[in-house]
Sequence to fold (250 residues):
Amino acid sequence: MVRKKMMAANWKMYKNVAETREFFREFLPLVAGHERDEIVVCPPYVDVPAAVESVKASQVAIGAQDVHWKDEGAFTGEISPRMLADVGCTHVIVGHSERRQYFGETDDSVNLKLKAALGHGLTPIVCVGEVLEEREAGLTEDVLRRQCARAFHAISAKKAAKLVIAYEPVWAIGTGKTATPEMASEAHVLIRGEAAKVFGEDFAQQLRILYGGSVKPENAKALMAEPEIDGALVGGASLAVKSFVAIVKY
Ligand code: PEP
Fold:
């Protein structure tokens, strides 16, 4: 089964509108005609319209970094999936570890957000991954199993068709520590197995599982060479055109 890899940028809380436009002005000519991998950039909400406008004539897709699960309502500060689709977002990150760590994201809210994103035709990139203490205590498998089972709860394979997972060991995010390709691969096999339990074997074979955690131009090639790794979710190294291009072209 050949799965087209997805190279996704998570800009976190970096770049304003002018910096967003400048990024794409430099970036797009360098990836023109690059069809081997799907390219997705997830800027902060306020930069999304400028990003969507910038990539209009290209193959690059724009995603958001989070989403609420309701279409509208009295939820101050939140953005709905309907609003994201309306401004031209096609992708959305759900359950990033920084949301889980700092903003009270739970396995249950991840499930609600995932359902809402799928319901609006968005491609969700659901993040799972263990923290350092969990890895050291030998709990990685339990944590991944729990996060997957709770995220996938009460979703049909048909509805989940667009699902993408990102395995992001939390100890590797922004730390310069990367999981070895073998470690990542092992986790991906486990996640694919969890998806097979819920959605079936065929679905699991088509499911893309990205790796995230200090992906850099220097380690992208070795990671992407693993058949189990179907792309990358890139934080820090996606902010500079040169390094993100190098990663995309691994
Ligand atoms: C991320 O934020 O999803 C991430 C993987 O960050 P970094 O590449 O900076 O480790």
The pocket of phosphoenolpyruvate is lined by residues 10, 168, 173-174, 212-215, 233-237 (CB under 6 Å). The beta strands are 6-10, 38-42, 61-64, 91-94, 123-128, 164-167, 208-212, 231-234.
